[in-house]
Amino acid sequence: MDAHLTPEEIGELTRIFPPHRAHHLLNRAGFPPGAVPAFPYTARDFWEQVAAELSHGAVSDGRWRLLEAAHRLYPGNEVFRAARTAPPALPMRVLVMSAEPRGTQHLEAGREVRAITHALRGSGAEAELVPAARSTDLGRVLSFEPHVLHLVCHGEGDSLVFGDVHGEAHHVPARDLADTLRHYRKTSDTGLHGLVLSSCDGEHIAPLFTGAAEVVVAHRGRLDAACAAAFTGHLYERLAQVGDLGRAAATAAHHVRLTDASCAPVADGLLVLRQE
């Protein structure tokens, strides 16, 4: 997607979001507070300065993030709707963290990781892999600045299971992980487009992450490892094409059902939550 706001988009932002209302929108888009114009002469001047900051790279995929946030607030607006259908500028970045600590059921995380790398091959996307992940590895979000964070780990109740320094199970409350991601979003230029929770019983955990990413993808009930890997492959193949995780997940659910009838529960249990 082009980094430059079009004159039509600037005009629509000017009309709907005067400076005193613009700060909430910019915050949702991950725009750095220090780059917000301080003394614009007019609303048009304000948005012209914001457009210039975006074109200079103030926010990764800034135009897409801004128009996506505007579309969420005004879903019926034709200008915002038309603009947000384009994918974020490549290279898309995916951070994959997997954890299979001792004493837990084998997840076959390697199969899912291979599905991601295979699906993204040739797309120009970048994937960073963190095997045997600890909860503190979440800090890679700040250094790598991924569009999508993909977690392959066990879910137990309202916790996700990572490894500790000895390779033993470390149960981390999902609420704490979500609060950390929201903190990253508020205090840095980092804003996740998507979060994929590849764990069982995701319906209990996924709602806790709303606001930590624009789109959260999870699954209800038990998650078969082979079917999870097949779904993941279809997911990232489609994501590289459309740039929107929710749309990619919906298509992947149809494709995984066609791949193997035994994977129907993965399709039926798909859960996609979008930031309000």
TrEMBL record:
<feature type="domain" description="Effector-associated">
    <location>
        <begin position="5"/>
        <end position="84"/>
    </location>
</feature>
<dbReference type="Pfam" id="PF19955">
    <property type="entry name" value="EAD1"/>
</dbReference>
<dbReference type="Pfam" id="PF12770">
    <property type="entry name" value="CHAT"/>
</dbReference>
<dbReference type="InterPro" id="IPR045430">
    <property type="entry name" value="EAD1"/>
</dbReference>
<feature type="domain" description="CHAT">
    <location>
        <begin position="107"/>
        <end position="259"/>
    </location>
</feature>
<dbReference type="InterPro" id="IPR024983">
    <property type="entry name" value="CHAT_dom"/>
</dbReference>
<protein>
    <recommendedName>
        <fullName>CHAT domain-containing protein</fullName>
    </recommendedName>
</protein>
